[in-house]
Amino acid sequence: MVGHGALRFLQNYPGGAGRLLISITADDRMHHHSHPTLPAGMPGPSRPRLPGYRRTPKLNGISEHPICHIRIRRLTGSASNPAMRFTLCFFLMLQACWLPAQIIDVHLHGYTDQDYWGGRPHPSGAESPPTAGEHMRQTIALMDQHDIEYAVVSGSPEATAQYVAADPRFIPGYMDDGSLIPVSEFEQLIKEGRIKVFGEVSGVYRGATLNDSIYQPYLALCEEYGIPVAYHTGGGPPMTPYRCCPEFRISLGDPFLIEDVLVRYPRLQLSLMHGGEVFFEHAVRMMTMYLHLYVDLGVLLWAAPPVQDYAVRLLKLAKQHGVLDRVMFGSDQMVWPGGITKSVEFLNSLDFLTEEEKRMILYDNAKRFLKLE
């Protein structure tokens, strides 16, 4: 029943702005999208899992499964004519055949004016906005451009609160920047819905791994409340021990060093950020052993050709070992929003991945990891 949802939407919103839903009813594997505006008579669920998230409502008892939706800025007066609405719907459905898949970005960063460190371009050519406010605006604009349905934004509680307030597609993560909040406060923020992901956990910059005793009470709470954990693996920028972090060592980014964490917390959803980077083979081997272990691609998709090579080799190895269903898209844009575009374009350029596999990486795997189902 392709187009039924789209026609219903336009009938309820003559002359309005919003999103056009195009759906089918035959394939229960299709995913649900969020709909910021629902037509009258189409109620969402009583308990959405995340801010802005709504399961697809039922029309006449039929559960519809969207395959895409198109943003409608505003319909002209002539579109209020039923024939015009039908014609518009038909051509928009044709256009949808060429629209890219939707995306969940599991690795973004957000900042306040106090902790923003941008302003200089990245060696790859990506520009950095001069202020935290402009960084947020550009990030949101690129989410619109690339049809990013959700994005995990990592930062301080103050930073993530600002991003979530600006756009409900943001999922608040809590970044370990070396000064962890008290365990009691951490639990309270979880209960309030202000921490939905524990990450980025970047203890390697201070000479620690996730196996360190300081993290154990936080990990226990994450397992108890079903909060996914995102952990920095691999290396860092050149000269890191001299520039900021004297205790940083590349060797601490080896995923093998946190195997005890996976054994200790068998119900913990854990993601290795940057896919282990230089240790990508170790990451894949760990994924074959521990089925609750995921990876995100992070800066491997855009920062520099050498790390893009790691991304290619990781993806090929993950495909060979049958764990591609736990590899997730994450751009790790940091202070360079353009990293989002570079990441999307690089992943879509990889011809050894099928369109179905790209969809898994861009959307489906993260949907499962974040418990959006």
Explain how this protein is built:
This is Amidohydrolase-related domain-containing protein. One of its GO terms (molecular function) is carboxy-lyase activity. Keywords: Lyase. One of its GO terms (cellular component) is cytoplasm. It comes from Neolewinella marina. The protein is an alpha/beta fold. It folds into two domains: 93 residues, no CATH class; 267 residues, TIM Barrel. It has an eight-stranded parallel sheet with strand order 5-6-7-8-9-10-11-12. A two-stranded antiparallel sheet has the order 1-4. α9 links the parallel β10 and β11. The relative contact order is 0.12.
Kindly provide the name of the CATH class of the largest domain. Alpha Beta
CATH topology of the largest domain: TIM Barrel
Number of structurally distinct domains: 2
**Overall geometric form:** globular
Classify the secondary structure makeup into a structural class: alpha/beta
Helix content: 25-40%
- Classified in CATH, the superfamily of the largest domain is Metal-dependent hydrolases
Number of helices: 12
Give the low-pLDDT segments.
Answer: 1-79, 94-99
Q: Which CATH architecture of the largest domain is right?
A: Alpha-Beta Barrel
Mean pLDDT reading:
81
Strand tally is 12
Order of helices and strands: HEEEEHEHEHEHEHEHHEHEHEHH
